[in-house]
Amino acid sequence: MAVYVLDAEGVELRLAETVRGAGRSYALPARYPLSGRSPVADAFRAGRPLWLTPTELAAYGPIGPTTPETPTTPGVSLGALPLGGDGKGLGCLVVVDEAPGGIDADRRGFIELYAHHVAAGVEAAGPQALTQRRPELPGLTLDRLRVGSFVLYLDSGRMTADTQVLELFGIPAEDFDGRVETLLAVAVPDDIPALMSVLEPDLLTSGTAQLEFRIRRPNGELRWLGLRARVETAADGTPRRMLGVIAETSYLRPTADEVSLVQRLSAALAGATTVRDVGRAVVGALRDPLGAGRLAVAELQADQLVVGVLAPAEPAAWPEVWRAAWRSEWPEPPSHALPTLAEALREGQVSIWPEGADLEPGLAGIGPGGLAVLPLPADGRIVGVCLIGWEERHEFGPEERSLLTATAGLVGQALVRAHALDAEHELATMLQRSLLPRKLPELPGGVAVTRYLPATMGLEVGGDWYDVIPLPDGHVALVIGDVQGHSAAAATIMGQMRTAIRAYAVEGHPPDVVVAHANRLLVGMETDLFATCCYADLDMEEGEAWFVRAGHIQPLLRHPDGTTAELDVEGGPPLGVVADAEFPMTAAGLSSGTLIALLTDGLVESARLDLDDGVRRACQALGRADPSDPGGVADALLGGDSRRDDDVALLLLRYDGMRVRPTRASWTVWRLPDAVMHARRFTARTLRNWGVEDELDVALLVTSELVTNALVHTRGEVRLNLTLTADRLRIAVNDPSPRTPVKPTTVDWEATGGRGLLLIEAMSQTWGSVPLSGGKQVWGEISLSSPREEPPGAAPEVPPDVPADRPSAELPEGPGRKGPRRRRARR
């Protein structure tokens, strides 16, 4: 590859620079007369690229000195690309390649885009600077020109980028996931809209686009990059893919004169939101351009200097008074320990001391070659100070003094603004923490972890909340919600809703009633805000969970085998919309090792991420994570995106189960004349197999009454469920009728019915009824006289007296095989 530039007389193209690859070397002439016939001169005169195959190149004859390795060798192709448009005619870029079939279309596209960056460098340096080799001018060297290439596939949004592109963006190759968003994350926010106008597939048309933008490197450095891209279209005219090159263009920006320094510093300070950011911006904009050895930025609070940033940040690089106060990351030296500095702060004027000035050691050691003290004014007072020191002798001219004075004013205003933002952030953080639980309770049979990240845009307080509520009988409620909006009003409503839901849950209401009460409360507040919520009631002993969803995104489940998916929870409307809304419950069974993830939409949806894609990514992260470390799982779900348009709340629970796991059996009761007898036989054989003998008669009586009531008062399928826990037996019957059974207040001696519920209440420790989807479940619990230590065997085989053509023993399958959680009725 070589660059030819037009000479001063405009009669020939002279070789300015050559870069040779790892293959064979090719001799290229030192000059090409414009009046002669050659690929380079022809391309320059025509003003468009010239691509020659080996055969076409041979027709020109030797293009340079005749040697055994000149480009006339078979299999050598050549490209000549004129540099400079609009009639400028700067020169030509020549590319020689061992390509028997000619340089392919993709490489041509990249080289043509690359040529534009070379032309910009030639124009900035000036052709004479290249031909005369004057090192004091900002010349161009091809081996130093940092240019990388990428391909963006517009149908999928995926991209491939070479190592040079990733190095320019400061992204390690192993951290690049092929997403445009990963590169945009390091771009300066003000430049993102312009970048998206080029890279957004929906807005692309065929053609070439160019743009200069800024990125923030991991070390805080602000860097200018240039993008040139060309869109390829399919046969139907729709954009198919984009070929592009990215080059560093910082060398094209103005050097460190007064105007450019102030402009760069202003741009850096515009994005500074904390006192530490202000310090980093000052260091990045001033230290290297001014050639300073040390630079410090500090706030002035009473008589203390609260340091925001020191460069370099090693204690040994600073005088003793600074090292003595180095208590943590940054020192806080008292200003009265540095009398010269204190006087400069009182006067409020920029003070400059040349080499050898009579200063106290605490200042003389900062700048032995020269020291500038910049008091930072704002709002009629001095809010801080900036110290700039040089190791070698430094001459201060009048322009530099003016520059430092202008710089001090900019930094002072930025420091005040950042301090206000810091205070606002601290207030928002305190408010948010006061509204969320300070710590989570210890749960029997499970481990819960939470994460909350405020939005990085706007006020860092919002309406996302979570809660973990211990309930009686080994139950625990998991709650996550999101109030509409991102403001102090949303946070206030959030605090009220969290408190109300906790109160309703502790009162003992079933999940659907808790959410319904919270909905009516929010409607009654007469606020314009609404809220979404997901409420889960878990029986930690039995491994059963009931979910209620009010306009919220679905919870995620990771099963012990690693499979992960959304749990399909039937949902109701958001809270605060319809006063009489219904919120159905969905049951799920949990096995030991199951992970439940409740999250808000800020984790899976943003302006850059579609909801379905976000949920898919969350499921994949949940499936890959190690469930033995719930905290690590939560961190993996959050990912590494530091820019958030919305709050993120995550509640994760790993269900471990109790020491003695519940044992379950299920039976479909067919509507036969002797159905109750079959139910009693199934119960008897199951309990004998489980080793339950003392409570057998009571269990058979409760079974008879529950099954009889279901058969007599309902139509459709009836199902009998038996659950044996460590200290009690639960007998439950599901039926398709939504009507809740009502216990009679009195029963006449001559009545032939109405005693079933009275018998169940008398024989059970507790009983109740809860609604199911399209039906209900009535249950009773019997205490065991001898709590078991080890789980007994499985349920018995199908009783032989049941007709063979009626498969009456049906064990539920799938993740919900343990059946819905049953809750005491307290209505």
Automatic annotation (TrEMBL):
Location of region: Disordered: 781-827
- The domain of life is Bacteria
What are the Pro residues biased-composition ranges? 793-802
Q: Record keywords: Hydrolase included?
A: yes
Alphabetized UniProt keyword annotations? Hydrolase
Q: Where is the composition biased (Basic residues)?
A: 818-827
Describe the location of the PPM-type phosphatase domain by residue ranges. 442-655
Pfam families named among the record's database cross-references? GAF_2 (PF13185), HATPase_c_2 (PF13581), PAS_3 (PF08447), SpoIIE (PF07228)
- Cited InterPro entries: Bact_Sigma-Reg (IPR052016), GAF (IPR003018), GAF-like_dom_sf (IPR029016), HATPase_C_sf (IPR036890), HATPase_dom (IPR003594), PAC (IPR001610), PAS (IPR000014), PAS-like_dom_sf (IPR035965)
Q: Which PANTHER family match?
A: STAGE II SPORULATION PROTEIN E, STAGE II SPORULATION PROTEIN E-RELATED
- The name under which this protein is listed is SpoIIE family protein phosphatase
Q: What organism does the UniProt record list as the source?
A: Streptomyces asiaticus subsp. ignotus
